[in-house]
């Protein structure tokens, strides 16, 4: 039966990809077949006809491609690709052995060379074998199209009935349907199993308590420039438009405190700071705000000198530094808390006290 | 001599002659123009320099900054801005401003370094301000790049990105990439806080701190990318783009090839050559 | 191998071993069924394989990384090969990642293959999900597999997030900080969850090792189990197939597992590995040495998570700053709605979709032949609307990069996104539906008129006509394969004019309307004024309004009694 009746294609039948149907029960037993009632995909006699044991050419897949010349040419191509892959794999090993990573000059350049060599060899090895295998399937193996029948997914009614019977019999034998005392106490006994994780995991961490409401800043804590850890005077920080990150003295290496206490100080021009900035908490037009964004806790660090905006780069919450860091755009719900600062006897900038509200993101108990 | 002239008709001789000429011209040019970058501490205050600066100022800058640099509605006052700010703005070509956008972009400088020094001296004479950093300050010899890294990440990366690739600010402004700035220009930018950039004066971030930051920036941008092309050094955005376009794209093409109908299945012909 | 009658036979030693195994496992029949299993061929069926093979590569490269990575947050001062960071305080996790990159041969390559494989894994899952969705392959009997797949999608996203957060660099640490802020924002239990996960305040010293064990043991274990179930179901229920000649709901047409599919899928594994290796060679990913170690005092401009978390990042950026302070408590809508409620809605909607569609179409039949997306216009429209919402959220996640590179003011990007996420899907829904119906009209036209060949000729009377060729059987088979609607006409009434019970009441009437809307389509039948090729009168096939397209033996069968159109 020709597969294609189109006017444009008038090819003789033997040039079409052979079409076999699997799944119809065989009329006769053959070398390759297994008889079986209801076996959807057993059996399968091809159009080469029925046969018994010893009958020639009983098969579903053709043995050879239709065009041996082109298959041989493609075989050469695939073989060459497999050889290239082999050579590339050897190259990988050679590159691994030969290219050291340190003791010669710049470590970054060495890493670049090694990565390039190892990676190119590996890529070539894999891709060559991949292309070769595809050529093998597409151009060397004979073309074939098979049909397999689907058997119905639903079980036969008698199987379902048998299952139901077995299930019911077992339930009856277990007595669990007839003995509510047994059943209910058993269920009660298993409930704690579900709750066990909740109990066992309690010690994952301490309870939050009021930890999030306070930071390390106290009266008299000096402001240190982060990373250089130097204290700073208002005269030092005297250029208008200046901004720097500061941390509380004594906590400069304590990441948990830094995640709450880090602040920025900004030097404004006279008259720029206005309400709701608390001017009693400023020194010489220097104002200090928490650097921890009130949205989800990224450092709100971008300061635009010309617009006085503090911009958090994570989600673009923007705070006006002249007006108490109130929110002018973005998802942050509250202004950045202002750190009250003053100078100490030596003239260094110090905190007057802790922040007057919890810093950072909102949490349930914040209020 | 005869060794050369005997071979003058050979084809390779032509190439050799051209090469020799190029080398000679190059050496001559290098001797005449000197090394790139200025070596002068340009806040010299000699009177001729200031006068030259004043004349140049009147031609290019006064139209926006006012005849006495007092500022107009178009541009701020430069009294007290200092020589460093002038050197930065003019040597990066941001000034003279071509058009009033959200931000002045870097472009090829209009003035020679000598002229820039003159204008800087003039502006400095009007009201002081930060001086142009000297060679010592702009050098990165002996820098601690580890400290530079911490300082850069804490104070600079939030605008300029961790590798100095630049970033967005509000209202169309942006923090430019740090790929082209010279050591001196980086110093001056920190010192003077151009446009929206905050000011990091020398008593907040000392010259040693600045040297560390400059060393970190220059070393980072000069560093090779051992993993391949850098994809812009802006992080997972471009990485995701390449994963989709490059990774999935290539694999979809491979999948299409693997499952494509063989030619004889499509057309029904078998030919000997493919 | 030796031959007899010109055929190969299995060599004696192999046959003997096979017999020994079969003695113990009774494998012959089952193995043979497996070897002859037919796999249908379409390139979109390989998208799931990209995900599968990426997963295998993730495991292989991941094992390599576990041999060198130190999941410890103990602070050290670096003095290693990468001298630029000498003297910098960092965690041992970060230090060991530097060591893998610069001191272990092949380490950087493995790290990069691992990370690229993670990105490609999730991108492939998304492509595969979209293919399943738009072809309706999640319908009965494959709803369970769909749910398994959506679960794996969610697990994959979490796995990736945990993975790239382990090196404790500035970029990923910022992501962990954001996750902590999100946890804090959960009402009632937020602070407890955060303190339990981090072992106290952020950052603490615990989260890297906890992420590590979830990332290398718990989730891979779950994924392996789910992948096995996913593949088993696919083999047991057999793969779907694209419509075409000879392909019905009762068969599978394609090539056998052995040797064809085995070799093809093996080749594709090497393709995936090769492409990932190519990416790892030429495209740098996650250069943690440039980014620097994490410190809560620092942040980089252009901080984005990996792309598959981008939609959450975008949701966080565009959501307004709504919080309620009530009775001493704060409800942070601005945080937990975009970060938790939005993905909750997306994944729940995805998981429930097969059942929603079943309610909407009344179609409870088995489906083993895929739909062409145009033949299910309402489903395709919903899908595209979902893609639009996801895409806008994703794009907004990179809005600062977009702002600086496309020179759009920063706030404007967010404001546009806030409107677009609502208006965009509506427009896309409507447009997609009209486009699908238009494509159906074109299909109907092709069935009756044939395919335009582009060859124009002039008739003696001066008119120009385009030559058309009739469709081949293969082409026609694809066009005809529109499934019949399973439901009778929506306003079905019995002979006394009483509506069907299931369609009564508010819910019933709603369901009837929804059925109608979902079933709208273009009939494939030619119009009433029957004709052949080359007629001059322009016309369109009749638009569906209660009509149903049919599957039939030929293009002209219509089973609709309303207009009395004749078939041929």
For this structure, what is the CATH class of the domain at 217-351 in chain A? Mainly Beta
Number of strands of chain B: 2
Distance between the termini of chain B: 62 Å
SSE order of chain B, as H and E?
HHHHHHHHHEEHHHH
Largest sheet of chain A: 4 strands, antiparallel
State the shape of chain B: extended
Write structural notes for this entry.
- The complex is a heterotrimer of chains A (367), B (274) and C (568).
- With 367 residues, chain A is an alpha+beta fold.
- Among the domains of chain A are: 81 residues; 135 residues, Rieske [2Fe-2S] iron-sulphur domain (Rieske Iron-sulfur Protein, 3-layer Sandwich).
- Chain A is built from 5 helices and 12 strands.
- In chain A, the strands form 4 sheets. Chain A has a 4-stranded antiparallel beta sheet with strand order 3-4-5-6. Chain A has a 4-stranded antiparallel beta sheet with strand order 7-8-9-10, with no helix packed on it.
- Chain A is flat and about 100 Å long.
- The N terminus of chain A is likely disordered.
- Chain B is mainly alpha-helical and 274 residues long.
- Among the domains of chain B are: 92 residues, Cytochrome Bc1 Complex, Chain D, domain 2 (Orthogonal Bundle), CATH 1.10.760.10; 92 residues, Cytochrome Bc1 Complex, Chain D, domain 2.
- Chain B is 52% helix and 1% strand.
- Chain B contains 13 helices and 2 strands; from the N terminus they run H-H-H-H-H-H-H-H-H-E-E-H-H-H-H.
- A two-stranded antiparallel ribbon of chain B has the order 1-2.
- The longest helix of chain B has 24 residues.
- Among the domains of chain C are: 34 residues, no CATH class; 263 residues, Cytochrome Bc1 Complex, Chain C (Up-down Bundle); 36 residues, no CATH class.
- Chain C contains 18 helices and 10 strands.
- In chain C, the strands form 5 sheets. Chain C has a two-stranded antiparallel ribbon with strand order 1-2. A two-stranded antiparallel sheet of chain C has the order 3-6.
- In chain C, strand 9 and strand 10 form a beta hairpin.
- The longest helix of chain C is centred in the last third of the chain and has 40 residues.
- The two termini of chain C are 57 Å apart.
- The C terminus of chain C is likely disordered.
- Chains A and C meet through helix 2, strand 2 and helix 5 of A and helix 2, helix 5, helix 7, helix 8 and strand 6 of C.
- Strand 2 of chain A pairs antiparallel with strand 6 of chain C.
